């Protein structure tokens, strides 16, 4: 399988409409060059452009979804289109997709950080509402609602587990995706430069501990004054870095054999030694 991670630069001065058109063209350029294309988190607005989340929020059939579905179909690729600020219908609705369950948005419309995955025919194959929202007591953590469902997508040759940015810090989410059959993790992000070492460290850790491929696509540029880490990365199940971007906008393309995850798990069956339901120490 060949994957292309498109590390988009998100900078002030470029409108959402212009960026959407530019990114769609970049996806189309992958026709015949990749089987799977991955975009970053919240590339329409920028992951730290909090004041734009509400004004730029879309539905799952909004302009970004429409443009990305067409680009995936034109290129004939599986497309993880990164994430968008989703405005859910009043009363809540499922994030949809082939393997997503239902998640309530509560009374009235709600915002979610929602990833979209399109098939080569342009169909919405799955969507994932980010479970772990970053910001502690501000930003995404207070402006957006939390998703509730783990999401996997079956691609030819591998089952993909979907996570987003801050999710990378929570290993139990990835264990859940492994239990759901995931052999490859796709992680779009808007990770800040000041914590870049954490980004690469955690990507390798999630690969090694779960014996899975990690395809982690970040952004370049500056989001609302926050410099981005870039350094999109592909890691194999042994923790070897197969490819890594620099700090600017670029496309990273890598060939990998999804079957290596199953082979690794068979040769070094550490996952079989998991001990679940441990009790807290007695006091």
TrEMBL record:
Show the SUPFAM superfamilies listed in the entry. Carbon-nitrogen hydrolase
**KW Hydrolase (keyword) present:** yes
Keyword terms:
Hydrolase
Q: Which GO terms describe its molecular function?
A: hydrolase activity
- Leader sequence range is none
Return the InterPro entries for the record. C-N_Hydrolase, C-N_Hydrolase_sf, UPF0012_CS
Domain CN hydrolase positions: 1-258
Entry keyword annotation includes Hydrolase:
yes
UniProt record similarity statement: Belongs to the carbon-nitrogen hydrolase superfamily. NIT1/NIT2 family.
Q: What is this protein called?
A: Hydrolase
- Species annotation: Streptomyces humidus
* Taxonomic placement: Bacteria, Bacillati, Actinomycetota, Actinomycetes, Kitasatosporales
